Amino acid sequence: MIAFNNQPQVLDRVAALPRYVTAAPAPTADALLLASNESPYDPLPSVRQAVVEGSARLHRYPEMHSGELRAALAAGLHVGAEQIVAGTGSVGVLQQIVTAFAQHGDEVVYPWRSFEAYPILIGACGATAVPVPLTGAGEIDLAAMANAIGGSTKIVLLCLPNNPTGTLPPAEAVAGFVAAVPRHVLVVIDEAYLEFSGAGSLCLLRHGNVVVVRTFSKAYGLAGLRIGYAVTTVPIADALRQVFLPFGVTALAQSAALASLRAQDELDARVAAVIAERDRVHTRLCGHGWRVPRSHANFVWLAEPDRAARIGERLRANGVLARVFPGEGVRLTIGTPAMNDSALRVLLS
Question: Which of 9, 178, 180, 191 has the fewest CB atoms inside 10 Å of its own CB, making it the most exposed?
């Protein structure tokens, strides 16, 4: 083997980035996967058929800007198609946003703990992360976030509902916060779990400095295809299109998303089932003394900082994979009733 004394050196800011951590691999093939906030249901037959039919055209590049999908979304959301930008999941869209609007010397304010990708995306572009602690109840502290906005702030991130706590500020509080943010600061509202809360923020686009980010990964069950989108003003949307990954959103993902929109009634029924199970799990846990904030997403948060690692190991030993945040808590994705019953047997025994 040839030894090289002078090797390419990674940028210091990249070497210092936190790692995106996922759940440990499943110990057995039949382990219950309740760690990644995925849909517990198989793709709908019509969505699967769209993917199968699309596989015959894998030798062709996809439509670069997802025109048909953007038109369908625009009709349903009552906005212009030019206001929508598609990307590789909501995290891909978030990367476009941070790349286009933040650089060295800029600050990005966000709640913490929240989505793990935020500090990674911020640090990768050289900007400074400004995390604002949640309240003791696991809620986003809007007053503290407002106080954290300074002269160097370029972006404010809000995860609504918040991941991993599932909490959601009142709509009027969010509206008041956004109205108070200086107009030169971009407000990014991450609505990855919108369908489980029903509290959308598109009305806030009137301020002109707001981007609403959504995904097909969660409620729509297309996590494996990586497709999400942003809704914003035309100038901001144009900026996001300038930094996108060409052909990053595959044709299969676009076809599956379109088929999902056509099957909205079936998907709404699945969302309703998840919500019912989420509330049942929450009630059972609270009834046995667990500290669980009211969740507006497809997961519940076990606020047990001192026992988080032990809880995660106990679940794992019994074939249930949850997302453990050592020293903070455990996030348990809502699965089918049978999956949830298995998790509850472990937690309540």
Answer: 9
